[in-house]
Amino acid sequence: MSGGHLTGHVVVVGSANVDLVVDVPRHPRGGETILGGDLRRTAGGKGANQAVAAARAGGAATSFVGALGRDDAADLLLGSLESAGVRTDVVRRVEAPTGTALITVSPDGENAIVVAPGANARVAVGGEQAERVRAADVVLAQLEVPLEVVTAAARARRAGAVLVLNAAPSRDLPAELWRELDVLVVNEHEAADLASAAGSSGRPETPEALADALLARVPAVVVTLGPDGSLVARRGAAAVRVPGMRVDAVDTTGAGDTYCGVLAAALARGADLVDAARLATAAAALAVTRPGAQDAVPTAADVAALAALAEKQPSADPLPPVLRKDR
User: Fold this and answer.
1) Which of these, 14, 53, 124, lies nearest to 280 by C-alpha position?
2) What is the rounded CA–CA span in Å between residue 103 and residue 81?
3) DSSP β-bridge partners for residue 196
4) pLDDT in tens, 268-319
5) What's the predicted TM-score (pTM) here?
6) DSSP-based three-state secondary structure for 77
7) Any residues with CB less than 8 A from the CB of 199 and at least 6 apart, and which?
8) Which of 3, 98, 180, 327 has its CA 20 to 30 A from that of 29?
9) 317 tagged catalytic
């Protein structure tokens, strides 16, 4: 962690996986076997990644609500969360294997992922978990856990707390959850799926059109655009493009999770959504310059430094040496 006084409280409700990662010359086609590099075993899972990012890169007090097995993979995940400063005292330990993600990474940093949910199917928001959710300024969730868990977290939050949903992996959302959402974070593919499920007429082709279609269901939408940054759209306001930052990508695993965690942390500290997106963009840019998910999450100080540099020099060359992660 970066140290210093933490302000705002984020509670992340979501998944935790041990990531089994192999570098490959290219992703295999159906029925094909290819040789890859050495196997890496690291801490991951969308929920756990976002919790680490909120605490380490976002600088907010952070609690994680999830479920782990009683195996060494759970020990790995708890160690990673706690080393980042995430509170894990309401994590459930269950009689199921800890979730596992099988990941291949190509030379351009793009990944392909298959998840075996395991214990993530047994996440619950009851008792002490619900009490922790009620203490949050921002509740952040994803869709690698059962939808009823996300809905329960939405119901448990206190009045005035912000509910941020990263709707990934893509799936239809129940009407009750739509009504509870404050901020929806999606990539272009997820945005298109949700716009179609929400009954959008025609097929929106641009991020702006996708966001406009989704604003009929949720007050604010952030569409992430990979290296091109993100689009922030709110009801009653003009959409804002937040430009991406030039970096030499090594591994994109967890970059979107870093974005979501930092966005939630900034909102918990009282930041405007556009300003939060700028910080999140800087954090995600730094994250792709290192391999892994949680291992690649930068510090809050580095995020602030890159965001300030980008504001002064929006067309700057790739990361200056002080911010490069290969040092």
Assistant:
1) 53
2) 20
3) none
4) 999 999 999 999 999 999 999 988 889 889 999 999 999 988 877 655 444 5
5) 0.89
6) helix
7) none
8) 98
9) no
